[in-house]
Amino acid sequence: EKGGFDSFMEKEIHEQPAAVRDTLLGRLDEKGNLTLDELKIDDSVLRSINKIIVVACGTAAYAGHVARYAIEHWCRIPTEVELAHEFRYRDPIVDEKTLVVALSQSGETMDTLMAVRHAQEQGAKVVSICNTNGSTLPREADAALYTHAGPEIAVASTKAFLSQIAAAYLLGLYLAQLRGNMYKDEVRGILQELQQMPEKIQAVIDGEQQVKDLGTSMKDAKSVLFLGRHVGFPVALEGALKLKEIAYLHAEGFAAGELKHGPIALVEEGQPIFVIVPSPNGRDSLHAKVVSTIQEVRARGAVTIVIAEEGDTAVEEHADHIIRIPASPSLLQPLLATVPLQIFSCAVAHAKGYDVDQPRNLAKSVTVE
Ligand code: BG6
Q1: What is the C-alpha separation between 251 and 305, in angstroms, rounded?
Q2: pLDDT, the chain, mean
Q3: What does the pLDDT average to over 275-303?
Q4: Ligand 1, atom 15: nearest CA belongs to which residue?
Q5: pLDDT of residue 369 exceeding 90
Q6: Protein residue with least CA distance to atom 7, ligand 1
Q7: How close is the Cα of 314 to the center of ligand 1, in Å?
Q8: Is the CB of residue 235 less than 8 Å from the CB of residue 213?
Q9: How many Å apart are CA 252 and CA 254, to the nearest integer?
Q10: pTM
Q11: Most exposed: 173, 181, 239, 288, by fewest CB within 10 Å?
């Protein structure tokens, strides 16, 4: 049942190219327009939306953070991400012009359901991005976009996370197309890039042995830090969460730019730090800034594990270890950069002899508030 793998988590990591491919499947109509037939909310309503709030918990919330960068960039709609259990307690400003996007693998997370009910009471429309057919969340939402990751057994989410990100990209592109923020050709161009992602994810998985060896060699680390910027920031948070969840190791993710405002005080000799490096071809000067972050932490004794695009030579002199990922458009990079972090935490947990699929104290879905 584990398909020859030691754990469901490993099996599910390997299923990610298919999970993303299946989530993207059949989204173009005969005219080459992106279609989301399931999105049963009137176009007029979707055109009038002036705010999006993404609600979710755990890993799904980090997918929400990635979604925010993409949706704001493509649709120019102010977008917030809120942990579902915090949402209603801050008396959020929600009305008929708010679109709430609820992300959940199980569709049964009570905190997320309660957030959605609260939003609906205020008149908001809710789209759910969910992996479980017929579960409560998509039934209660105004529209349901399904991820097609297949059943996820391991408690720590992997393929559901990548599929949630893929589905959120589709939603963002659809809204941008509908609202006229993007031309048809632009949307199609990004869709084409998206369609190449499963193959690129596979390429990252094919390089897993290097990452596994690294995980095994670092099994006695006391703490691991993760740094990223822009969409690399939620990837850093997710990398840290995975390590906490299954390897019971202290781990933190930071926005790389925040480092000098506090966390750099943590860095001492031998501290392992993962750095997710944006594409050197991306916008702004982000790449150069992240490279200088690597330099700063290394100068203070950190062992740097750098996740960088193939061909990015600027990182070489500052990296103790380099994990290569294929080049991709900046916004899509999380689909690749997350994968080595999943493989790493899985390897650390295996090396420590832990049950990767059933980590202590955690449940696959939490159906109480
Ligand atoms: C947690 C799970 O309890 O719930 C996490 O352990 C998961 O893995 C989170 O990310 C949210 O779950 P769901 O089903 O709403 O995506």
Answers
A1: 14
A2: 94
A3: 93
A4: 104
A5: no
A6: 58
A7: 37
A8: no
A9: 7
A10: 0.96
A11: 288
Residue 72, number of CB atoms within 10 A of its CB: 15
pLDDT in tens, 143-152: 999 999 999 9
DSSP letter string, 233-290: HHHHHHHHHHHHHHH--EEEEEEGGGGGGTGGGG--TT-EEEEEPPPTTSSTTHHHHH
The per-residue pLDDT for range 154-165, each reduced to its tens digit, is 999 999 999 999
Pocket mutation for ligand 1, best pick of 85, 153, 364, 368 (most atoms within 8 Å of C-beta) = 364
d(CA 123, CA 189): 35
Strands, sheet with 223-228, edge to edge from the N-terminal-most edge strand: 250-255, 223-228, 272-276, 303-309, 321-325
**Active-site entry in 51, 244, 352, 364:** 364
Q: Which of 42, 99, 96 is CA-nearest to residue 67?
A: 99
Ligand 1 mean position, distance from CA 280 (Å): 33
Decide if 212 is catalytic.
no
ipTM more than 0.85?
Answer: yes
Cα-to-centroid distance, 136 and ligand 1 (Å): 15
DSSP labels, 143-168: EEEE-------SSS-SHHHHHHHHHH
